[in-house]
Structures are given as structure tokens and as C-alpha cells.
Amino acid sequence: MKKAALHNLGCKVNAYEMDAMQEMLEKAGYEIVPFQEGADLYVINTCTVTNIADRKSRQMLHRARRMNPEAVVVAAGCYVQAQEQYPADSCVDILIGNNRKRDLLQILEAYEKEKSGAGKEKTKVKYVTDLPAETEYEELSLTRAGEHTRAYIKVQDGCNQFCSYCIIPYARGRVRSRQKEKVVEEVQSLAENGYREIVLTGIHLSSYGMDFHRQPAEGGEDRFYGVELLELIRVVHEVEGIERIRLGSLEPRIITEEFVRGVFALPKVCPHFHLSLQSGCDATLRRMNRHYTSAQYYEKCELLRKYFTNPALTTDIIVGFPGETEEEFEQSYAFVEQVDFYETHIFKYSRRKGTRAAEMEQQVPEEVKTKRSSKMIALGERKRALYEKSFLGKEVEVLVEERTEKNEKNCFVGHTREYLKIMLDEENMAQNSIQKVRIRKDSQIIH
Length: 447
Description:
- The chain is of the alpha/beta class and 447 residues long.
- It has helices at 12-27, 51-67, 78-82, 104-116, 168-172, 180-192, 227-237, 257-264, 282-288, 294-307, 326-339, 366-389, and strands at residues 3-8, 31-32, 41-46, 72-77, 94-96, 125-127, 150-157, 176-177, 197-202, 244-247, 272-274, 312-319, 343-348, 395-406, 409-416, 421-424, 434-438, 445-446.
């Protein structure tokens, strides 16, 4: 039995694809081992969202080669796809771009046949699709996921937004969506294997199903924005055994009265919404090529609060974007103060070769970005604490996920529908059950 070691870099979509490749290898007879010395096959699912991600991808590929010089080393995913010239060093044997990961077993078989041919030397092979011309969704599936209670389901790939700082449309191609029937089949399989919560995710989840329609003559693509995703949520909602549906990152413009009213009518949908913001300054948003203003974004947050009681609103913020003045940063800071997010994920702008922002003038010095990041992080922590404090004394539903130990006493931890992580002192709770508990003290909420 050959031994395979896998390592994933990057987002939840990458993690899903890594899990799917692992399941393929297991079914083909490979023994999955830790990412250490001694494997016959190393598969690294790479990331390219920043220059740092590129460097980490290269480091893991070189590490794999050092651990076993005779192993087959596979580089898959976004770093491979985004390279104008594919990695030329000797650490990689097989390059697999996006939309070709489903072919992993066939690629490995072909490589082994080629390598074993008389007089053949070990050579690098690549399987990279021209993604801008690709319209087919790459079908991958899982019967189990990394967590036993919660499973991430990839339903969409690609992005048509072309934000000025982002390389992902070039690494992932245009929007491609998974057929609803295939999604339901996978969700049913996961439910049969005991999963209680499903997280629908994609590279640009809000664009799910846009490729199912030809762009209408009037109204543009916005006419169908959110329609197909809402329908997908409805059919997943009907799957027996699934108790919770959580949504991945959403774009603000999908939050319409119709969409919010629709998801509110589905009791399995969790009141936890991640709305990408990136900046609270309109001038910065324009340079980023984001398609909304801060005022429009705020309206979306208020619309969610109109229907859901105290929903968990989370977001991403980039500080130090090219041209961001001190005044613009303060506008962004004041806006984050106004919205009252539960969690705010702060990123210092990272220059990414191949994007428009990388060529912009007025790049912000690193020390300024660090100062602004620290200030925004402190605000985010203060807002998080206030949101969590609002649950003290209230009864919540917790999905019991894993056993732990506190003060030499057995406990459990789990998440509320809002995704607050809760410590449960009771010892007699059943794992993977949903329990109603009252939050009595700050220490029950894990940060």
C-alpha cells in the first residue's frame, strides 16, 4: 500500500478540494499519513492570494522533496494556475491546475506508466486548463469532512468581479456553478454519515447560478443576482438530518429584501452572515473596484437586522491600500465603529504582482500599515466583546462538537447558531447533539 501525505494552503474552498482528493486516494488504496518523512506521494494544494501565499506554497513543495527525494511531489491549485511560467525547479513532478483536480488518480496512473517506461527519465508534467475559456464546473464530492459535526460544501467556483487587489479571477477563472441536484446528493450523503451542519461555500458564493442564465438584454446580471443561491438554500433545507445551514462569504449587493426575507423563512439558516467590506471609505472602495458605497453597505446590515434578532455580522477589512490617506483610514475606522460587527478580520494590504493595485502609485509604507492595523484590530476586539456580552443570561442552541478538559473536569465545546464558541460544563452531553443552554458567565464563551 502506497503512502500519501497531503497539505492544504488557503481558503475553505481549497480545504474542501483537498478533502475530496484525499477521499479519492483512500478509495484507490493509498494509506493517508501525516505530512512527514516516509510518504511515497506528497500532494500540496497551493494558494496564490498574496505573495506570502506564493512563498509558503514554494516552501511546502521544497519541504516535501527534502522529506523523500524519491517520492512523487504534486503541486495543485491556484499557485500553479496563476504562474505565467510554471515552477521550473526540480522539487515538483506533477503540476495540476484548477479544474483538473478531479483527474488526480488518472494523472498519477499516467505518470507512473511514463516513469516506468524503458529508458525514461523522471520528467515534470503539467495539467493546466485555460480557465478564462472554461465553462464547466469541476465536479468533486465528499462523503465525510474534516469535522464530524460540520461540513463545508463547495457549490461554486470562479469570480467575475476583478477587484483591483485580487489575483483570484485569474487563478480560478470565470463563475461556474454546481448543479443543485449534485449539491443535494452530497448533502444527503453527509447527513446519512451524521453531519448536522452544512456550510455552503464558493470562491464568490453570491454569484452562484449566474452562469445558468444568459445575460438579459435589460437589467444586466443583477436581475438574477441571488435568485439561484436562494433556491439552492431552499432545496438543501429540505434534506432530512441537516439541522443547520450556514453561508460562506457574501457580497453586499446580494442582500436584498427578497433574499433576506427568503432565508429568514428557512429556520435552518443560521443568523451568521459574513459580508465582505474591505474599506469603509468610498474613495478607497472605488480604487478597489468594489461595487457599492459605505452607505449602501450599511443599508444591507440594517436589512439583516430588520429580520434577524441580533445576527452575527462579520467582515474583512484591508488597511493601507494604495493611496489610503490618514483621513481615508479614519473614515474606514469610523464606519467599522458604526456598524458594530461581531468579528472583523483585518489584513494589511499585500502587494500582489499581476493586479492593478500593485502598479498603483502612493503605496503605503509598511510601518503605517502596521499602525493602522493595530488600531483597527483593537476596535474589532472591543466590538467582539460587546457582541458576546449581549448573550449573557440568554438561552442559546449549541451544536456539541468535541470533548475537552477544564480544571481536570470533562467538558464539551460547541457553537451557537451565531457561531459563538461555547464551553459546556455538563459531562453527560452527547457529541453531535444540539442542546439548549443558558450563557451564565463570560468564561463560557471561548475566544
